[in-house]
Amino acid sequence: MRFLSLLCALCLLSLPVHADITVGLLTTRADEQTLEDWQPILNDLSAAIGQPVKGWVSSDREAMLRKIQNNEIQVARVDNKLALDAVESGKSDVFASLIQSGNLKTYRSVMLVRKESPIQNAEQLLDQPKKLRYAAGKSSSTADFYIPQYHLFMKKNILPEQYFKQIIVGNAEQSFTSLAQKKVDVAVSNSFDLEQLKEKYPRDFSQMRIVWQSPEFTFDPLIMRRDLPASQKAKISQFFLDYGRTGTNTALAKQRLYYADQLAGFTAADNRNLRQVTDLQLFHDLFRLTFNTKLDPSVKTAQEKAYYARYNQLVTLLGGAK
Q1: Could you list the residue range(s) of the whole structural domain that residue 302 is in?
Q2: Residue 18 per-residue DSSP state
Q3: What is the CATH number of the domain that holds 118?
Q4: What 8-state DSSP symbol labels residue 133?
Q5: Is 132 within the bounds of a domain?
Q6: Which of 35, 189, 204, 222 could form a disulfide with 180 if both were Cys (CB 3.0 to 4.6 A apart)?
Q7: Residues 66 and 97 in one domain
């Protein structure tokens, strides 16, 4: 009997054991509220894959990247810049991207002013050096930093820190409320976050207007650790791609998606979706290098070569040229 018991125990130990799945949620809102809004979806994911699923929420991109690299997060809803860093580290791959309510698959960066502002367009915004206060996005943000940096400022050979009278850095909600409270004259935002801010602050939103918007960009991605078992990755991917589209509880899933992030669902994507932010990042780095008068020319040349070398590596990693 003892032998049989030992044999059974050894057999159980030899069975594959899957650890809990942690889903990282990058947010610009309160952590607790974001987790509460996403919890029903995480519960449905747990039921679908037959494993415990928990969420980890943060607005700190560096903290989330560390957790991804340390295998503390296996699946994550992030922005394009963080996804690029995770893919570059060799830990994760893009498998889906978000679809916003209204079946929107793209977003735009925007610039906001209050309705009483005399600024009517981008030309007037960029014709008042050292006069305006600006609520800017964090340098790690694709929508609120890299996109406006390139498409609005750098194309006009403007460095924001040299142009504006004052710059306040924050997330989308902080920039919005700074403008609402008249602490700044212009604030960056994006069409995705702006829809949520419009719902949360309808009165403040009614006192603002858009004076510039960027070209369209692909919505934020979902990433998954590369080293998860293939069967596990397939189940997780299928859950998100089907969620709100098929099954017996489609209507309830759609409701949960909307409450979580005003989403309509998810669409299949891969690492090539990150090419847009790769191009923006290279241009940004080269532009700032050109305007850096403190560096020795030889150092500049070496740095430029390093930027291009990294860019070429990323292009290969993301699936080659467009």
Answers
A1: 276-317
A2: P
A3: 3.40.190.10
A4: E
A5: yes
A6: 204
A7: yes
> pLDDT value at position 19?
60
Asked whether 55 and 35 are in contact (CB, 8 A), the reply is yes
Total domains in the fold of the chain: 3
Q: Which residues of the chain have pLDDT under 70?
A: 1-19, 320-322
- In whole angstroms, what is the distance from residue 17 CA to residue 262 CA? 35
Q: Which residue has the tokens 């934020």?
A: 220
Distances (CA, A) of 159 to 217, 283, 289: 22, 13, 12
Q: How far is CA 234 from CA 46, 140, 155, 224, 267, in A?
A: 14, 30, 42, 11, 14
Shared domain check, 280 and 268 = no
310 and 163 fall within a common domain: no
**Residues 135, 155: one domain?**
yes
Q: Are residues 282 and 299 in the same domain?
A: yes
191 within 8 A of 107, measured Cβ to Cβ:
yes
Structure tokens, 5:
């018991």
Token pair recorded at residue 150: 């390139």
Report the C-alpha gap between 122 and 113 in whole angstroms. 11
Judged by DSSP in three states, 310 sits in helix
